Amino acid sequence: MTKKDRKQVTNSGSRTNPGVRVAVAFALLAGAAAASAATLSIADAVSVRKANFKEIGGAFKTVNDELKTGAPDINTVGPAAKDIARRAALVKDHFPAGSGPESGLKTKAKAEIWSNPTEFGKYTAALARSAKALDTAARSGDLAAMTKARDALGKTCKGCHSQFREK
Amino acid sequence: MVAPSLPVSRLKVWDAPVRLFHWALAGLIGCAWWTGEQGMLDWHRLTGYAILTLLLFRLAWGFAGSTTARFSQFLRGPRAVAAYLAQGLFQRGTPARPGHNPAGGWSVLAMLSLLFAQVALGFFAVDVDGLESGPFAYLVDFDTGRAAAQAHHLVFNLLLALIALHVLAIAWYRLFKRENLVGAMLTGSREWTGQAPPLRFASPLLALVLVLAAGLGVWALIRFFGQA
Q: Is the pTM for the entire model greater than 0.80?
């Protein structure tokens, strides 16, 4: 008698098909695992998003501190602007469904981000665009161009935050 | 010849500089709140500089000003404060001495200290975007600047609590003690029964010089050491 045969014999009295039982057990396990993976990824998304925004804020402060001097050090502005451009491009993917206030996590992202994705999408696109423009201006080294690009990027931050971020 | 002392008379208590300081400060705190809420940070910074000028003037006036403006006159010991809170607060009529009461005196110091702290925090504060900042925020990193901004919000709430206490005390004086403190802060004088205490009033010209010096000092601080 093979192992398989024995198993079949042993289970022959049961009303439920053993294959179904095993499948159900696996499905339950898999479901639980998937649920916990989903929770984890939402928490990750929120912390990654916060960290990225924080870096953008810090880099933008660096740019602004330099521009305020009237004679910015291009070796300081350049890397900061480049960093902002790289990070700004990531922002559009930082708001997966479920990572808003309903997540119960500490976030200032308003529910309107998901209820008005068209408007929010305009801002994430504008962010990527104006950050890239600042990077380009920083490469040129032209103070007037950098100031103009800074103002445009600042306006994008403020505009989106006033609409989609809790105070 | 004038009678040496009338039983009931008007007594000048607050000099013009103290009154102007008080109402200008009240107005500027309102401006600071409004410009901060509206994100008018250019005006918010200017309001802060104006408040700092007033604070520096008041600090100097507390040492060189009129009798009722001096810290040495209104900062009393714990016994005087306890006696006032136990009795004076519940008695009607002319107080033992003109000017700030023993609890109010410490409240003045608390208010001035909180305002100094508030201006200092604003100097280093950075907004969440890294866009707007105080004139000395360039000296600190983003995280420190954000912490300063958060403390700036917290201290504002403490100020609001102190202002609420101030207004409550004024209402108490009006309703229970039947004294009009707002009127006294407007006209500078109050009703006084009995011998008028000797009060010395400092020259308004000195006040003007001190305000100008404070303003010049603040301007130089921002102009030569700040970045805004």
A: yes
